[in-house]
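Incident review: delayed structure delivery

Summary: a single-chain prediction request sat in the queue longer than the usual turnaround. Root cause was a stuck worker, restarted by the on-call engineer. No data loss occurred. The affected request and its eventual output are reproduced below so the record is complete for anyone auditing the incident later.

Affected input:
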Amino acid sequence: MKSVLLSLTVLFSLPLFGAVRATYIKGDTWVSQYLEKGGDIRHVTGLVLPSDWKTHARFDNSIPKRDLPPVFDWRWKAEGLQPVKNQGQCGSCWAFSVTATMEALIKIQTHHVVDLAEQTLVSTCESGGDCGGGYFDAFNYMKSPGMPDEKQDPYKAQNSSCKSNLKAIEKLTSWSYVGDGNDEPTIEQLKTAIMQHGPLSVGIYANSSFSAYKGGVFNNCSSGSENHMVNIEGWNDDGQYWIMRNSWGADWGENGYMNIRYTGSSGAKCNNIAALAAYAVYKDGVLDTFSTSK
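Output delivered after worker restart:
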């Protein structure tokens, strides 16, 4: 029953296809207010790539070309996903992004909603990061030893020691970056990866303008190094935007989501969204969506 209620909460809070405002709505959010008061953006983001991150990285440049629908949204396709969570003032976006990817895959393949423990990744259980930042490598912990649920290790929004006797309830099979590791993945590669593998964990450049998003299609694009990890769960070609899931709570943006343009006026990815992107594999691997997509 809890799984059904959580799914319905997300499903019926979504706008209908084509109902998104074409303009960017800016206003006060808890993040923009925090930054205006002198808060450090690193404490509400957290993507930190080590200099040698490519050394052991796996890249998938074999994403095949397929006929892609003009509109796709895993929230509808999966009949609801886990509600958007809030990382708080801890640079743990990376933990929330990879967890959202795994939770979505479980929902898509098993129709069950699970609430996995981001705190386990933020604590010393996983050596890849903490409130000072982390990156995609956290997927490795999700492969082995696997992830406990939130009840075992509730989120504290702060660094902590690893709890003993944690029991993994789910594991990933594998994960990979999208592309060849040299050039940024194309929009077509990203869309195909979303349909074949589910929501992606992606990097993005978050700044003050980004933090003040309230609705519509974000088009105030800026260039900057990726400092935040989020998820892409779909797209809309009519509006030329990605459906992006954040980790700043459901009160931010549109129920925790942002509709963000593929590219800015220069042709570069808007705020560098998905210049770095990764998918994960859970149990069944490739998802059969091309023959049944909306």
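Verification: The beta strands are 24-26, 59-60, 71-73, 174-178, 200-204, 213-218, 228-236, 241-245, 257-261, 277-281.
Action items: add queue-age alerting; document worker restart procedure.
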